[in-house]
Design brief:
This protein has helices at residues 8-15, 40-49, 77-90, 113-124; strands spanning 26-32, 55-61, 99-102, 106-109, 130-137, 140-147, 154-168, 178-194, 199-205, 212-217, 224-230. It has 231 residues and is of the alpha+beta class. It is globular and about 55 Å long. This is Secreted protein.
Length: 231
């Protein structure tokens, strides 16, 4: 874990006055933990990002800090596995919290708003490779994609998340604090694959009313090709 100062003022400075195109949203994955004393500033930053249309922020709570006194109520082993997969794919020497992964391609300490802003701007400026459209028809999610060039194979992921929840931390490094978490991933499923050529359509049955994110990502923890959400 990393020890970092509160960044509420820096968060405001980094994002005020900035604008980006909204038709090519940037995926920001935050690997975090309720038991990590360095994570609240990053959790607050993710909350700031949640208010933007040009960014799709997701909080993936990992389970490897549960042993230090507080079991994270949102943690899932599959999120730790995903973080380790990114580390292997990117040649990163270690995993840590808070870590943000931008569009599946670059990582940054999650509580450094200026660096996060720079990476978001960098990825938002890139030309989209796929035109992705997601609609909901009753209990069915309809995905439509069109390659905008020479496409590459990608995996189709569907994520359900909870917009926010406040948690009273009883033990561990954040004992006595009541913290608000945003865009908490509750379920993550890989549902299909696409060769990236021409057009693609897929339908998935949905249960419940939680918001949905759809991600097209190159296999083996590669770059995110496209992302979309339904609130």
């Amino acid at each position: 874990m990393r020890k970092l100062l509160s960044l509420s003022v820096a968060v405001f400075t980094a994002f005020s006055g900035a604008s980006w195109a909204q038709d090519n949203p940037v995926l920001v994955e935050l690997f975090t933990s309720q038991g990590c004393s360095s994570c609240p500033p990053a959790d607050a930053l993710l909350h700031e990002l949640a208010g933007r249309d040009d960014v799709i922020p997701l909080a993936l709570h990992v389970d490897y800090w549960d042993y230090i006194g507080w079991k994270d109520s949102f943690a899932q082993a599959k999120f730790t596995k995903r973080q380790k997969g990114y580390a292997r794919a990117g040649g990163w020497r270690t995993i840590y919290t808070p870590q943000m992964v931008i569009n599946g391609a670059e990582d940054v300490v999650g509580s450094k708003p200026m660096k996060v802003t720079d990476l978001i701007r960098k990825h938002a400026a890139r030309a989209p490779k796929v035109d992705l459209d997601v609609t909901r028809q009753g209990n069915t999610l309809v995905l439509s994609a069109k390659s905008l060039g020479q496409g590459d194979p990608c995996d189709i992921h569907i994520i359900r998340y909870k917009p926010s929840e406040e948690v009273a931390i009883g033990r561990g490094e954040n004992a006595g604090r009541s913290l608000v978490y945003s865009h908490i991933v509750k379920d993550w499923q890989k549902v299909d694959q696409w060769d990236g050529q021409g057009t693609y359509q897929h339908e998935v049955a949905l249960k419940g009313s939680e918001p949905v994110v759809v991600i097209l990502q190159e296999p083996n923890y590669g770059a995110v090709v496209a992302a979309a959400r339904l609130r």
